[in-house]
Amino acid sequence: GGQPRNVQPFSDEDASIETMSHCSGFSDPASFTEDGPEVDEEATQEDLEYKLKGFIDLTLDKSAKTRQGALESLKSAFTSKILYEFVMERRMTLTDSIERCIKKGKSDEQCAAAGLACLLCVQMGSGIESEEIFKTLGPVLKKIVCDGTASIQARQACATCLGVCCFIVTDDITELCSTMECLENIFTKAYPRDRDTNGVSSTHNTVLHISALLAWTLLLTICPINEVKKKIEMHLHKLPSLLSCDDLHMRIAAGETLALLFELARETDADFFYEDMELLTEKLRALATDGNKHRAKVDKRKQRSVFRDVLRAIEERDFPTEMVKFGPERMYIDCWVKKQTYDTFKEILGSGMQFHLQSNDFLRNVFELGPPVMLDAAALKTMKISRFERHLYNSAAFKARTKARSKCRDKRADVGEFF
């Protein structure tokens, strides 16, 4: 009758075994073996649920380390699997555990609990049950976000969680506006004051400001047109000041938000005109060609890549389309709104993003992918490749990659041959 303290942490092995029972796990042809042993799906599912029940019980443990470990294990499971029925039956228990950990836990535990709250809503999708979860957790998250005595990491995690959960569950415009105002109160503190108009210096709160800005931008993508216009009028002239911030991630977040604002503004008003366009494009062009020696090469490369796209979007109204592959399907990211949404959920789901794109009804609705694709036995057979074929392919790819890198690294190589 005691708590199952000896439950083993959720592992990648658990994910790989159980995933075989889902049609969506068939994204990687290399994951199949010609003569693999049959898996007892029912027994595997029972074993998985037993473990998860143990983790839920351990979120109430007296030890903070044990609680955090249980939260992290639940996060791993929710990232790599679709557990809708299991979660539906235990949603209130999970909500109570998350609420308790956010209220009473220390920084790391609060971050883990906020991350689990995001994944809980991703699992549940939009619906009445998810609204109940957000009604319970929303006020708690807002309190931590606005609490100056809480750790920056906890406030940052709660700001992200607040934006994502509101995006998933909220149909109420009043709640949406309230949440956006809460986030605005945070990231607007990064705007330079009248006494300091030369630039914006990084502070220890910058990571919080970035998370609040990105969460706010995500919510802006689902706002009604009238609200979008109000927000654009309020922030479009102030956001460019953040491009002078010392922090690379703040500069990138501000640049991508500006690109998204311009995209929304032009969709709502074909004759949209921005007065300071020349000054803004000059600043963006400087960031897109930045060669300051005091900045790391990796940072400069990333900054130039992002701001070339931002400048192109604002000057030419163009977006560099990206393609995302998952299993037999393809998805094209062809606008800043879609990119912002995809980047947010990719950050939350990590390596489980492709699996959820294949199997999660909510995410498929968000990206207009339709119902999950079911693969029959014939289709699966065509996707199988032998171990020998995989070996040949990997060897060829490795040789080609090594050859290409050697050319780039050879200082004596003729630069002209690359053009």
From TrEMBL:
Q: Where is the Interferon-related developmental regulator N-terminal domain?
A: 19-315
What residue spans carry the region label Disordered?
1-37
- SUPFAM superfamilies on file: ARM repeat
Q: Name one GO biological process term.
A: cell differentiation
Q: Which Pfam families match?
A: IFRD (PF05004), IFRD_C (PF04836)
Looking at the record, the residues that make up the Interferon-related developmental regulator C-terminal domain are 360-413
Assembly and oligomerization: Interacts with PSIP1/LEDGF.
Name the protein family: Belongs to the IFRD family.
> How is this protein named in the record?
Interferon-related developmental regulator 1
